[in-house]
Design a protein that fits this description.
Helices cover 34% and strands 18% of the residues. It contains 7 helices and 5 strands. A 5-stranded mixed sheet has the order 1-5-4-2-3, with helices on both faces. Strand 4 (142-149) and strand 5 form a beta hairpin. Helix 1 (31-44) runs parallel beside helix 5 (104-113). The protein is globular and about 60 Å long.
Length: 188
């Protein structure tokens, strides 16, 4: 197994732009997407992997919703204050919509690394991420990743190339631990 874990402080720039093949997409990246694409790219750099490698990614609930303030201000202009999904989508700029979509982070990682294999997005569960990797189709390694965008704008990202047999009996199987905890542990 090889793994890489990175943490970026709130004021720290995430130097992902120089690594991107599809730079036009950067405007749609959240800080979690930036950290994930950078970390995955660093882990996979120089490795010859088939594009059909299974890839599973888990993301925490986003604590930092600061980018939605502008949307809520627009919605507050409506006197009835009743939530209406259509009105919400019309008031939300497209880059914000992409930043809110839960599966966009693994999509950007896949795009940048030409990953086309089996994949799944998991909402913040180390156990579910481990089970996804353990039951991955095919022989050979699996790419696992996790991210966490904190309310203070700090962000964590972790990725690992692992053979499913290495995960059997892992202590976080069946736990309620957040997915990023796997990568914090592997970094020690």
């Amino acid at each position: 197994m090889t793994s890489l874990y990175r943490r970026f402080s709130p004021e720290e720039d995430i130097p992902v732009a120089g690594r991107l093949k599809k730079r036009k997409l950067l405007k749609y990246y959240s800080r979690e997407a930036m950290a994930a694409v950078l970390t995955a790219g660093e882990l996979l750099d120089g490795k010859s992997l088939p594009p059909h490698i299974p890839f599973y990614y888990a993301s925490a609930y986003v604590e930092n919703l600061e980018f939605l303030e502008e949307v809520f201000e627009k919605l507050d202009a409506y006197p009835d204050h009743v939530f209406d999904a259509q009105r919400f989508l019309l008031a939300t700029p497209p880059p914000v919509n992409f930043k809110m979509m839960r599966n966009m982070v693994p999509c950007f990682v896949s795009i940048e690394n030409n990953l086309t294999g089996d994949n799944n997005f998991i909402v913040d569960s180390a156990s579910a991420l481990l089970y996804a990797a353990l039951t991955a189709p095919g022989e050979g390694p699996v790419l696992m990743g996790a991210g966490y965008l904190h309310a203070d704008d700090s962000v964590e990202a972790g990725f690992a190339l692992v053979n499913p047999s290495e995960l059997a009996g892992h202590p976080l199987l069946g736990s309620d631990a957040p997915a990023i905890e796997l990568f914090r542990q592997w970094a020690q």
